[in-house]
Amino acid sequence: MLNKKCLMLVVLISGTFLTGISLADSPTGLKSGTPDIKSAGPLAFGPNGVLFIGDAKSAAIFAIDTGDAPDSRKPADVNVDNVNKKIGSLLGTSGKNIQINDVAVNPLSGNVYLSVTRAVGEPRPALIKVNAAGDVAAVPLKDIAFAKAELPKAPADQEYTRRGKKRNNRNESITDIAFFDNRVYVAGLSNEEFASKLRSLAFPFTEVDNGTSVEIYHASHGKIETHSPVRTFVPFDIGGEPHLLASYTCTPLVTFPISRLTPDTKVTGKTVAELGNHNRPLDMIVYEQDGQRFVMMANSSRGVMKFSTEGIDKAEHLNEKVKDKAGHPYETIEELQGVVQLDRLDDASAIVLMVDPANENQFNLKTVPLP
Q: Apex CA 276: angle with CA 101 and CA 241, to 5°?
């Protein structure tokens, strides 16, 4: 382990600080220290068990070494009822005061990680690990190997009132993240006029550019939108070319070719479906079954949707107003009720965080077969 007395390298590139980056021969560029994480939101795993954490409050992405040992065995099912209560006990509060923000499975070990907020008093972030035995433990965020990349042009951290509700755009500086082809993709808002952004960060972190401004035609609203952020997305090849498949509130489904996500440009996504208004997409995974690729998406009020990616590259671009639903077809997985987060465990199963049907204040972590 590096000597704690060693000076941390702080590099200023294009007006953006990158901290925690080592001069040593670490393939992931991580350095021992204590990351100053202010909020723990979206999660994504990269190489060698490195976990990326989206910190919207800091408008930064943290990469940390989980220290998980590789396990070549098939991942074991993980089932923990009332997981929020168990987390609350660890953090000195009740389950009602625990907000679980995301769930991610470490493909190296099969351990499940949860980003949480202790939402009582001064909100405090925490990272939780659940192993195959169902043991729930807090992950120490002190004296660990980490790196940090701060996002430029983040929204100001200040509250304002809109339509009678208090808002803070800094909380949406990072709405989702994913790791794909040695890069971390980040969705969220900026402080620019065209606020919705998609960013691409090379890993190990070397520099962070201004990202790409993205707009869409929201067919159920009948207008172009430049301020609404992507809520959840997955990267994969569509028609032989890497794309991001993204979903927004109310619920347009949009594709973005990764090759067009270049810095300081504006890109219009292709709206391939409207999946129903009065709904917020919560999480999305992609998987293969019987030689076909599918996407499964959890929603706030429309249940869990499953749709095939076949033909999505040839889908019509929706550029006129529709009443409610249109475009690429989907099915609702009726047996999956109350799912708020999900991640793929292996080729046949997923981990889901779901509201207990008998108690809306209880959340259960379950392993379910991929539909």
A: 75
**Contact between 161 and 169 (Cβ < 8 Å):** no
Backbone phi and psi for residue 193, each to the nearest 5 degrees, phi listed first: -60, -45
**Residue 94 dihedral angles phi and psi, to the nearest 5°:** -90, 165
State how beta strands 223-225 and 349-356 pair. Answer: unpaired
Rg (CA), the chain: 20
State how far the alpha carbon of 219 is from the alpha carbons of 125, 193, 276, 320, in Å. Answer: 37, 22, 10, 6
Report yes or no: 58 and 37 within 8 Å, Cβ to Cβ.
Answer: yes
- pLDDT (tens digit per residue) in 208-239: 999 999 999 999 999 999 999 999 999 999 99
Dihedrals phi, psi of 179, to nearest 5 degrees: -110, 130
The answer, as to whether pTM is greater than 0.70, is yes
Contact 260, 267 (CB under 8 A): yes
Residue 197 vs residues 146, 167, 202, 354, 366: alpha-carbon distances, Å:
25, 19, 16, 29, 33
The C-alpha torsion from 115 through 120 and 121 to 123, rounded to 10°, is 20
Q: Please name the amino acid found at residue 355.
A: V
Q: Name the β-bridge partners of 118.
A: 98, 124
75, 110 in Cβ contact below 8 A?
Answer: yes
The pLDDT tens digits of the residues spanning 84-115 come to: 999 999 999 999 999 999 999 999 999 999 99
Cα(27)–Cα(203) distance, integer angstroms: 10
87 membership: H or E segment, kind and range = helix 83-90
| Residue-wise pLDDT tens digits, 182-218 | 999 999 999 999 999 999 999 999 889 999 999 999 9
Mean pLDDT of 249-257: 97
- The structure tokens 């006129």 sit at 320
Q: What is the spatial distance between Cα 171 and Cα 177, in angstroms, rounded to a whole number?
A: 14
| Residue 82 CB neighbour total at 10 angstroms | 16
Give the CB-side neighbour count of residue 43, counting CA atoms within 13 A: 26
Taking residue 187's Cβ as centre, other Cβ atoms within 10 Å add up to: 27
- Rounded to the nearest 5°, which phi and psi values hold at 177? -140, 160
Structure-token pair, residue 287: 């998987």
